[in-house]
Specification:
Largest sheet: none
Structural class: mainly alpha
């Protein structure tokens, strides 16, 4: 298995940013919106770290995954699975459904699609 080091570096940078946002940012823009946009890109970079070739609909698959997680929040999956006491899992899964989160995931997906198009046309890794 070959690891794409550039995507791995981007993944770790985004992961650090997400952790900083989760632990230290308590505002009304970056934490609720930028964090949700970045999480979609974070998942994308993780997958691209290990995928040898571009996966044709990967941004769409990630959006569907994020949408599924958000819908599970609507159905209180953390409570259904009795995970409220597990701070890490309940933070990763999320506990509050918000339609605005879906918009953020969509924006993150659009950013990925634009990035892929740019990368295909201008960047040779």
């Amino acid at each position: 298995m070959k690891i794409n080091k550039r995507y791995l570096i981007i993944f770790f940078i985004l992961l650090i940013i997400e952790i900083i946002i989760a632990l230290f940012v308590r505002d009304k823009i970056i934490r609720p919106y930028v964090g949700d946009i970045l999480v979609v890109i974070l998942i994308y970079t993780l997958i691209r770290t290990f995928a040898k070739k571009t996966i044709k609909f990967l941004p769409i698959y990630i959006f569907i995954f994020a949408l599924t997680v958000e819908l599970l929040q609507y159905f209180n999956i953390v409570e259904v699975l009795n995970l409220q006491s597990n701070k890490v899992l309940s933070t990763i899964i999320g506990t509050t459904f918000d339609v605005k989160d879906i918009l953020c995931y969509f924006i993150g997906t659009v950013i990925i699609i634009i990035w892929e198009k740019f990368e295909r046309n201008y960047i040779t890794w």
